[in-house]
Protein backbone atom coordinates (compact mmCIF):
# COMPACT_ATOMS: atom_id res chain seq x y z
CA UNK A 1 0.00 0.00 0.00
CA UNK A 2 1.11 3.59 -0.51
CA UNK A 3 2.37 5.51 2.52
CA UNK A 4 -0.25 7.86 4.03
CA UNK A 5 0.11 10.58 6.65
CA UNK A 6 -0.31 8.60 9.85
CA UNK A 7 -1.03 10.90 12.78
CA UNK A 8 -4.60 11.94 13.49
CA UNK A 9 -3.51 15.54 12.92
CA UNK A 10 -2.25 14.75 9.43
CA UNK A 11 -5.42 12.88 8.43
CA UNK A 12 -7.68 15.42 10.16
CA UNK A 13 -11.27 15.30 8.93
CA UNK A 14 -10.39 12.86 6.17
CA UNK A 15 -11.66 9.31 5.58
CA UNK A 16 -9.09 6.94 7.01
CA UNK A 17 -8.32 3.95 4.75
CA UNK A 18 -10.64 1.10 5.78
CA UNK A 19 -11.92 -2.29 4.48
CA UNK A 20 -13.49 -0.68 1.40
CA UNK A 21 -10.22 1.10 0.59
CA UNK A 22 -8.21 -2.13 0.97
CA UNK A 23 -10.62 -4.06 -1.25
CA UNK A 24 -10.26 -1.30 -3.86
CA UNK A 25 -6.44 -1.58 -3.67
CA UNK A 26 -6.65 -5.39 -4.06
CA UNK A 27 -8.90 -4.97 -7.11
CA UNK A 28 -6.45 -2.54 -8.72
CA UNK A 29 -3.66 -5.00 -8.11
CA UNK A 30 -5.84 -7.71 -9.77
CA UNK A 31 -6.21 -5.39 -12.76
CA UNK A 32 -2.49 -4.70 -13.16
CA UNK A 33 -2.08 -6.51 -16.49
CA UNK A 34 -5.30 -5.01 -17.89
CA UNK A 35 -4.23 -1.51 -16.83
CA UNK A 36 -0.75 -1.96 -18.32
CA UNK A 37 -2.28 -2.99 -21.64
CA UNK A 38 -4.59 0.01 -21.50
CA UNK A 39 -1.51 2.27 -21.16
CA UNK A 40 -3.52 5.17 -19.67
CA UNK A 41 -2.59 8.85 -19.98
CA UNK A 42 -5.10 10.26 -17.50
CA UNK A 43 -6.23 8.64 -14.25
CA UNK A 44 -9.00 10.50 -12.41
CA UNK A 45 -9.86 9.67 -8.83
CA UNK A 46 -13.09 11.11 -7.48
CA UNK A 47 -13.20 11.40 -3.70
CA UNK A 48 -9.56 10.47 -3.02
CA UNK A 49 -9.86 11.14 0.74
CA UNK A 50 -6.36 10.25 1.97
CA UNK A 51 -5.25 9.84 -1.66
CA UNK A 52 -4.01 6.30 -1.17
CA UNK A 53 -5.96 4.65 -4.03
CA UNK A 54 -4.96 7.10 -6.77
CA UNK A 55 -1.36 7.25 -5.56
CA UNK A 56 -1.14 3.45 -5.40
CA UNK A 57 -2.51 3.23 -8.95
CA UNK A 58 0.04 5.77 -10.17
CA UNK A 59 2.94 3.85 -8.65
CA UNK A 60 1.62 0.57 -10.08
CA UNK A 61 1.55 2.19 -13.53
CA UNK A 62 4.99 3.74 -12.98
CA UNK A 63 6.37 0.28 -12.14
CA UNK A 64 5.13 -0.78 -15.61
CA UNK A 65 6.87 2.20 -17.25
CA UNK A 66 3.61 4.14 -17.73
CA UNK A 67 3.94 7.87 -16.88
CA UNK A 68 0.25 8.77 -16.40
CA UNK A 69 -1.20 11.97 -14.91
CA UNK A 70 -3.42 11.74 -11.82
CA UNK A 71 -6.32 14.14 -11.34
CA UNK A 72 -7.85 14.00 -7.87
CA UNK A 73 -11.14 15.71 -7.05
CA UNK A 74 -12.64 15.84 -3.58
CA UNK A 75 -15.34 18.05 -2.10
CA UNK A 76 -13.53 18.09 1.27
CA UNK A 77 -10.71 20.65 1.46
CA UNK A 78 -8.86 18.57 4.07
CA UNK A 79 -8.98 15.54 1.75
CA UNK A 80 -7.34 17.52 -1.06
CA UNK A 81 -4.59 18.64 1.36
CA UNK A 82 -4.10 15.06 2.59
CA UNK A 83 -3.97 13.71 -0.98
CA UNK A 84 -1.23 16.23 -1.74
CA UNK A 85 0.80 15.00 1.25
CA UNK A 86 0.26 11.33 0.32
CA UNK A 87 1.45 12.06 -3.23
CA UNK A 88 4.56 13.80 -1.89
CA UNK A 89 5.32 10.95 0.53
CA UNK A 90 5.15 8.47 -2.38
CA UNK A 91 7.00 10.59 -4.95
CA UNK A 92 3.99 11.03 -7.22
CA UNK A 93 4.56 14.34 -9.02
CA UNK A 94 2.24 14.14 -12.04
CA UNK A 95 -0.82 15.14 -10.05
CA UNK A 96 -3.51 17.85 -10.17
CA UNK A 97 -5.69 18.11 -7.08
CA UNK A 98 -8.90 20.09 -7.12
CA UNK A 99 -11.58 20.75 -4.51
CA UNK A 100 -14.84 20.35 -6.42
CA UNK A 101 -18.27 18.73 -6.31
CA UNK A 102 -17.89 15.69 -8.58
CA UNK A 103 -17.11 16.95 -12.10
CA UNK A 104 -19.32 20.03 -12.07
CA UNK A 105 -16.67 22.52 -13.26
CA UNK A 106 -14.64 20.26 -15.54
CA UNK A 107 -14.79 19.94 -19.29
CA UNK A 108 -13.14 16.55 -19.92
CA UNK A 109 -14.64 15.24 -23.13
CA UNK A 110 -13.69 11.56 -23.41
CA UNK A 111 -10.19 12.17 -22.01
CA UNK A 112 -10.13 10.03 -18.87
CA UNK A 113 -8.63 6.55 -19.31
CA UNK A 114 -9.09 5.28 -15.75
CA UNK A 115 -11.82 6.62 -13.45
CA UNK A 116 -11.75 5.55 -9.79
CA UNK A 117 -14.47 6.22 -7.21
CA UNK A 118 -15.03 4.94 -3.72
CA UNK A 119 -18.20 6.98 -3.19
CA UNK A 120 -20.22 7.82 -0.11
CA UNK A 121 -22.30 4.62 -0.36
CA UNK A 122 -23.93 4.28 3.07
CA UNK A 123 -27.75 4.59 3.03
CA UNK A 124 -28.67 7.68 5.11
CA UNK A 125 -31.47 10.23 5.21
CA UNK A 126 -31.22 12.56 2.19
CA UNK A 127 -30.62 15.54 4.48
CA UNK A 128 -27.22 14.12 5.40
CA UNK A 129 -25.97 14.28 1.80
CA UNK A 130 -24.11 17.37 0.60
CA UNK A 131 -21.67 17.98 3.46
CA UNK A 132 -18.19 19.25 2.65
CA UNK A 133 -16.68 17.67 5.77
CA UNK A 134 -16.06 14.12 6.95
CA UNK A 135 -19.78 13.18 6.59
CA UNK A 136 -19.30 13.45 2.81
CA UNK A 137 -17.17 10.31 3.09
CA UNK A 138 -20.13 8.06 3.85
CA UNK A 139 -23.52 9.83 3.59
CA UNK A 140 -25.09 8.40 0.45
CA UNK A 141 -28.77 9.25 0.94
CA UNK A 142 -31.55 6.94 -0.22
CA UNK A 143 -30.13 3.45 -0.94
CA UNK A 144 -26.70 5.09 -0.64
CA UNK A 145 -27.19 6.14 -4.26
CA UNK A 146 -27.65 9.89 -4.26
CA UNK A 147 -24.05 10.83 -5.10
CA UNK A 148 -23.50 7.71 -7.25
CA UNK A 149 -26.59 8.48 -9.34
CA UNK A 150 -25.33 11.98 -10.13
CA UNK A 151 -22.17 10.51 -11.61
CA UNK A 152 -23.47 7.53 -13.64
CA UNK A 153 -25.03 9.50 -16.56
CA UNK A 154 -21.90 11.60 -17.14
CA UNK A 155 -19.34 8.77 -17.18
CA UNK A 156 -19.89 8.29 -20.93
CA UNK A 157 -18.93 11.93 -21.56
CA UNK A 158 -15.61 11.86 -19.73
CA UNK A 159 -14.30 8.32 -20.28
CA UNK A 160 -12.12 7.72 -23.35
CA UNK A 161 -13.29 5.10 -25.87
CA UNK A 162 -11.11 2.42 -24.29
CA UNK A 163 -11.42 3.83 -20.78
CA UNK A 164 -12.40 1.93 -17.64
CA UNK A 165 -14.34 2.99 -14.55
CA UNK A 166 -13.95 1.20 -11.20
CA UNK A 167 -16.35 1.90 -8.34
CA UNK A 168 -16.84 0.56 -4.82
CA UNK A 169 -20.41 -0.33 -3.85
CA UNK A 170 -22.32 -2.20 -1.16
CA UNK A 171 -25.27 -4.55 -1.68
CA UNK A 172 -27.73 -1.86 -0.50
CA UNK A 173 -26.74 0.27 -3.52
CA UNK A 174 -28.57 -2.27 -5.75
CA UNK A 175 -25.75 -3.30 -8.09
CA UNK A 176 -28.13 -4.83 -10.66
CA UNK A 177 -29.89 -1.49 -11.00
CA UNK A 178 -26.53 0.29 -11.38
CA UNK A 179 -25.58 -2.23 -14.10
CA UNK A 180 -28.92 -1.57 -15.85
CA UNK A 181 -28.33 2.19 -15.84
CA UNK A 182 -24.78 1.76 -17.11
CA UNK A 183 -25.97 -0.65 -19.80
CA UNK A 184 -28.44 2.00 -21.00
CA UNK A 185 -25.43 4.34 -21.21
CA UNK A 186 -23.44 1.81 -23.29
CA UNK A 187 -21.34 0.10 -20.61
CA UNK A 188 -20.75 -3.50 -19.57
CA UNK A 189 -20.49 -4.16 -15.83
CA UNK A 190 -18.37 -6.86 -14.20
CA UNK A 191 -17.44 -7.54 -10.58
CA UNK A 192 -13.70 -7.53 -9.94
CA UNK A 193 -13.82 -8.41 -6.22
CA UNK A 194 -16.37 -8.84 -3.41
CA UNK A 195 -15.95 -9.24 0.31
CA UNK A 196 -18.06 -9.28 3.44
CA UNK A 197 -16.57 -6.75 5.87
CA UNK A 198 -18.45 -6.55 9.17
CA UNK A 199 -22.00 -5.56 8.15
CA UNK A 200 -21.09 -4.52 4.59
CA UNK A 201 -21.17 -6.69 1.45
CA UNK A 202 -18.59 -4.74 -0.58
CA UNK A 203 -17.90 -5.13 -4.31
CA UNK A 204 -15.68 -3.42 -6.81
CA UNK A 205 -17.53 -2.91 -10.09
CA UNK A 206 -15.73 -2.45 -13.40
CA UNK A 207 -17.40 -0.64 -16.29
CA UNK A 208 -16.14 -0.71 -19.89
CA UNK A 209 -17.82 0.45 -23.06
CA UNK A 210 -19.78 -2.11 -25.07
CA UNK A 211 -18.01 -2.90 -28.36
CA UNK A 212 -20.68 -1.12 -30.42
CA UNK A 213 -20.15 2.08 -28.40
CA UNK A 214 -16.47 2.44 -29.25
CA UNK A 215 -16.88 2.62 -33.02
C1 LIG B 1 -15.62 6.60 1.16
S1 LIG B 1 -14.57 8.00 1.05
C2 LIG B 1 -13.27 7.30 0.05
C3 LIG B 1 -11.91 7.87 0.35
C4 LIG B 1 -10.76 7.13 -0.34
N1 LIG B 1 -10.90 7.15 -1.78
C5 LIG B 1 -10.66 5.70 0.14
O1 LIG B 1 -10.99 4.79 -0.65
O2 LIG B 1 -10.25 5.49 1.28
C6 LIG B 1 -15.47 9.05 -0.12
C7 LIG B 1 -14.74 10.33 -0.52
O3 LIG B 1 -15.57 11.01 -1.49
C8 LIG B 1 -15.58 12.40 -1.22
N2 LIG B 1 -16.82 12.96 -1.79
C9 LIG B 1 -18.09 12.77 -1.35
N3 LIG B 1 -18.97 13.44 -2.12
C10 LIG B 1 -18.23 14.05 -3.08
C11 LIG B 1 -18.56 14.90 -4.18
N4 LIG B 1 -19.83 15.25 -4.44
N5 LIG B 1 -17.56 15.37 -4.96
C12 LIG B 1 -16.27 15.04 -4.71
N6 LIG B 1 -15.89 14.25 -3.68
C13 LIG B 1 -16.86 13.75 -2.88
C14 LIG B 1 -15.50 12.47 0.30
O4 LIG B 1 -15.08 13.73 0.77
C15 LIG B 1 -14.52 11.33 0.61
O5 LIG B 1 -13.19 11.80 0.60
Automatic annotation (TrEMBL):
<keyword id="KW-0808">Transferase</keyword>
<dbReference type="Pfam" id="PF05175">
    <property type="entry name" value="MTS"/>
</dbReference>
<feature type="domain" description="Methyltransferase small">
    <location>
        <begin position="35"/>
        <end position="122"/>
    </location>
</feature>
<keyword id="KW-0489">Methyltransferase</keyword>
<protein>
    <recommendedName>
        <fullName>Methyltransferase small domain-containing protein</fullName>
    </recommendedName>
</protein>
<dbReference type="InterPro" id="IPR029063">
    <property type="entry name" value="SAM-dependent_MTases_sf"/>
</dbReference>
<dbReference type="GO" id="GO:0008276">
    <property type="term" value="F:protein methyltransferase activity"/>
</dbReference>
<dbReference type="InterPro" id="IPR007848">
    <property type="entry name" value="Small_mtfrase_dom"/>
</dbReference>
<dbReference type="GO" id="GO:0003676">
    <property type="term" value="F:nucleic acid binding"/>
</dbReference>
<dbReference type="GO" id="GO:0008757">
    <property type="term" value="F:S-adenosylmethionine-dependent methyltransferase activity"/>
</dbReference>
<dbReference type="InterPro" id="IPR052190">
    <property type="entry name" value="Euk-Arch_PrmC-MTase"/>
</dbReference>
<dbReference type="GO" id="GO:0005634">
    <property type="term" value="C:nucleus"/>
</dbReference>
<keyword id="KW-0949">S-adenosyl-L-methionine</keyword>
<dbReference type="InterPro" id="IPR002052">
    <property type="entry name" value="DNA_methylase_N6_adenine_CS"/>
</dbReference>
<keyword id="KW-0539">Nucleus</keyword>
<dbReference type="InterPro" id="IPR004557">
    <property type="entry name" value="PrmC-related"/>
</dbReference>
<dbReference type="GO" id="GO:0035657">
    <property type="term" value="C:eRF1 methyltransferase complex"/>
</dbReference>
<dbReference type="GO" id="GO:0032259">
    <property type="term" value="P:methylation"/>
</dbReference>
<comment type="similarity">
    <text>Belongs to the eukaryotic/archaeal PrmC-related family.</text>
</comment>
